[in-house]
Specification:
By secondary structure, the chain is α+β, with helices and mostly antiparallel strands. It folds into two domains: 2-78, no CATH class; 90-162, no CATH class. It has helices spanning 14-27, 45-78, 128-136; strands spanning 2-4, 31-33, 38-40, 90-96, 102-109, 114-117, 123-126, 146-147, 161-162. The strands form four sheets. It has a three-stranded mixed β-sheet, covered by helices on one side. Strands 4-5 form a two-stranded antiparallel sheet. A two-stranded antiparallel ribbon has the order 6-7. A hairpin with a 4-residue loop joins strand 2 (31-33) and strand 3 (38-40). The chain is elongated and about 65 Å long.
């Protein structure tokens, strides 16, 4: 018996879900869906159909969520808002508009000096931008995506990482 929390956790691609159901049917594997509090035997037409429909719903929900996210990301990009999480080593500069909303005006290397105290009381000063530059310069990180120390070219938003 295979136990899953809900059918959406099985697969969000309909073809792979159906292939999975067919395999379970061929091998006689029962599928218990915890959220349904039910065990399905996909060798039975009704159980197979129920789980196949659940797979169709999961695939549709996944596509709907993807459409919503892409639409919202495009809207944010048109308004000049940053995409994704805040990048370590950089800080975002905002100004407050007349409508009392923040507006991103730039992303710059974070050069604020911070202090860390290590073992034995060793005190080290560092900046987040400096940490990025130091990591980028190590041979073990060559060829990987790393922070670009130079910041944003010509003050425009662009890629914050490079190979």
């Amino acid at each position: 018996m295979l136990v899953i929390w809900e059918t959406a956790r099985g697969d969000r691609k309909l073809a792979r879900w159906i292939e999975f159901l067919d395999l379970c049917r061929d091998l006689g594997i029962l599928i218990h869906v915890t959220s349904h509090q039910h065990t399905y035997d996909v060798r039975k037409r009704r159980d197979y159909k129920t789980l196949a429909e659940e797979g169709l719903d999961s695939a549709d929900d996944s596509e709907l969520t993807s459409e919503r996210l892409l639409r919202d990301k495009r809207k944010a990009a048109k308004r000049g808002l940053p995409h994704g999480r805040h990048l370590y080593g950089y800080k975002r500069i905002y100004e407050i508009g007349e409508d009392n909303r923040r507006r991103l005006v730039g992303v710059v290397p974070d050069e604020e000096v911070r202090t860390a105290v290590g073992r034995g009381g060793t005190v080290t000063e560092y900046t987040h931008a400096g940490v990025c530059a130091a990591v980028a310069g190590t041979s073990s990180f060559q060829g990987l995506l790393v922070c670009r120390r130079s910041g944003w070219p010509d003050g425009r938003r662009g890629r914050a990482f490079e190979r």
